[in-house]
Amino acid sequence: MDFLKLIKQQRKDSKKEAWSGTFLDYLNEVKSTPELTKLAHKRLADAIETHGVEFLSESDPRCRKLFDADKVRIYNYFNEDFFGHERVISKIMRFVKSAAMKGEESRQVLLLMGPVGSGKSALADSLKKALEKSAEPIFHLDGCPVREEPLHLLPRSIRDEFSKMLGVHIEGDLCPVCRHRLMEEFNGEYEKFPVVRSGFSLRGRRGIAVVPPMDANSQDVSALIGSEDISKLDKYSESDPRVLNLDGAFNVGNRGVVEFVEIFKNEIEFLHTILTATQEKNVPTPGKNGMLYFDGVIISHCNEAEWNRFKSEHTNEAVLDRIVKIEVPYVLELTQEIKIYEKMLRRSDFKAHLAPHTIKVAAMFSVLSRLKPSQKCDLLTKMKIYDGQEVIERGRVRKIDIKDLREEAKHEGMEGISTRFITKAIDNALTDSDKSFITPMRVIDSLIKQVKEQIIKDDDRKHYLEILQKSIREEYLKMLEGEIAKAFVTAYEEQAQSLFDNYLDNAEAFTTRQKLKDRVTSEEREPDEKFMRAIEEQIGITGSAKDGFRSDVTSYMFTKIRRGQKVDYKSYEPLKEAIESYLIASVKDMARIVTKSKSRDNEQQKKYSEMIQTMIDDYGYTADSAEEILTFAANNLWRDS
Ligand SMILES: Nc1ncnc2c1ncn2[C@@H]1O[C@H](COP(=O)(O)OP(=O)(O)OP(=O)(O)O)[C@@H](O)[C@H]1O
Ligand SMILES: [Mg+2]
């Protein structure tokens, strides 16, 4: 490890990046690269779009099922950090891009509004980071406290001409500090004014400023516009720009981003600077130095209660009129919600093994807690439909339109359990565990404990406990039962496929009123009624419903075959479910005996070890977690049989 070599290399690289010259040199740079002068919104839009923009592919089932085949733009920049926020992100980007075209939006404040832990701060951070990561440099007047665009040096009288020659739009006036320097140091010869190149940095307070909420006593407008250095006031007059300390948020964030954290926690007076900053692209300077040009993206966030309170005060109208509000609801799509926690766990230091479904049950809880009850189906079904899953009822895929469900519950996603609540419960389960792994039941227990401790409203607590103790527990047991049975059946897929072939042959013969030709012996026989019924029963098809089901299956499959598509036991969701539960039921008794018995004979022990192995190889358990899960299953799954 050669530390010194690395250090020297870094120094060399950063020198190479540095650029300095005079205003005249800068003009030549602009001539060859006019984009150097772009304004803040455009800069931000480009910094994000350079990572790529795609449409959600029409072959992606999410596109058809969840977005109603709408063209949803996917901005790759956000892909690693955000899940299920496509709509929110596309609204944010619509704002940024329209502002980049210098439309009315460029004079508005972007407000992200949503419940706790819905990702508002994370989104704002991500927008700021886009500038930090951007490879595009920014040129500014050397020593300028607001890092201003060098073209501000050009006197108004010749701007039009320069604008034409350079092919750029020029706006904004020189800041008082640079104006003073221009006169004193350069005798007004602005072509000699030094220009430098730099980038954006949150920590370095270069082009990115954050305004935390301040209470009425401590809030001071100097946090926004800077202050006067009192110690210099005996040396210079009050109108001398040398007394200025331009280190407020609107100074630091010039040409980049100014973020107002929890914006409405501030007093309204404090926010008035925002009005001029947006509407006139000017902010006041401290003391007697007039106005200062400002160009930046203003981002803010708040929760719904604060928004409603603010909105109801009609004295706030002027500010309201300058706000573009974008709702940031919770994610209601299970698969995406799971990805949020996977991301958080990846980024944490926890190393324990999580048994399969552990994160899923936690995510199920948060999603279910956020859903409003529907007239059309129960919550669990609604969750599945929102996740793009097919829900089978009486042999048919339930035809509930996701649009109707959304229509019925307009305000959904603005209440319920937050992402933080879930991560805390997972973290607690991990910390409390005396083993090297945790299981879904541990997380459910941890969630139950946390609900009892932290949810104060009686109705909510009751509702949440019911979700955990009933809906999720039952759903988990069902998943587990299927999984264990699959682990128990040797060559599961082959068996399922052969049942499928057999069923299809029989159903076809039945539907076309023909005899069935045995595949091996070529003997003709009647369709096997008993066999078909045994399969159909699994999904509640009895009596006369069977005729319809059989002809549905047959025509569905033959349409597929005619189109040259492959069919297998997974092709038709209702039949797949029937076949799987048939298989599961057929081994249930054996699975129970093998997992339950304390003293297994050799045969049973062998089967048991094979099962554990399948659970490790195919489902991702460890030997320990598989054992614990099987014990849990033995005690809970088959209790009543
Ligand atoms: N859709 C999502 N995709 C990825 N991560 C998410 C998503 N929603 C929330 N998160 C994560 O949840 C955590 C909490 O989010 P964040 O702090 O941004 O919430 P917030 O909306 O600002 O909440 P508050 O109102 O309490 O400040 C963050 O780690 C964030 O990355
Ligand atoms: Mg926040």
Structural account:
With 641 residues, the protein is of the alpha/beta class. Helices cover 51% and strands 10% of the residues. It is built from 26 helices and 20 strands. The strands form 8 sheets. A 5-stranded parallel sheet has the order 7-10-13-4-14. A 3-stranded antiparallel sheet has the order 1-6-5. Helix 3 crosses helix 5 (86-100), helix 15 (358-370) packs antiparallel against helix 20 (458-488) and helix 20 crosses helix 24 (573-596). The longest helix is centred in the C-terminal third of the chain and has 31 residues, at 458-488. The chain is elongated and about 105 Å long. The N and C termini lie far apart (66 Å). 35% of the residues are buried. The structure holds adenosine-5'-triphosphate (ATP) and magnesium ion. Residues 81-85, 114, 116-122, 303, 331, 340, 419-420 line the site of adenosine-5'-triphosphate.
Summarize the SSE layout with pairings:
Elements: H1 3-17, E1 20-22, H2 23-32, H3 40-49, E2 53-55, H4 61-66, E3 73-75, H5 86-100, E4 109-113, H6 120-133, E5 138-141, H7 156-166, H8 176-184, E6 194-198, E7 208-211, H9 222-225, E8 227-228, E9 244-245, H10 249-252, E10 257-260, H11 268-279, E11 282-284, E12 291-293, E13 297-302, H12 304-312, H13 317-320, E14 323-327, H14 334-347, E15 353-354, H15 358-370, H16 379-386, E16 392-393, E17 396-397, H17 402-408, H18 419-432, E18 437-438, H19 440-454, H20 458-488, H21 492-511, E19 516-517, E20 524-525, H22 529-537, H23 545-562, H24 573-596, H25 602-619, H26 623-636
Parallel strand pairs: 4-13, 4-14, 7-10, 10-13, 15-18
Antiparallel strand pairs: 1-6, 2-3, 5-6, 8-9, 11-12, 16-17, 19-20
The structure holds adenosine-5'-triphosphate and magnesium ion (MG).
Adenosine-5'-triphosphate binds at residues 81-85, 114, 116-122, 303, 331, 340, 419-420.
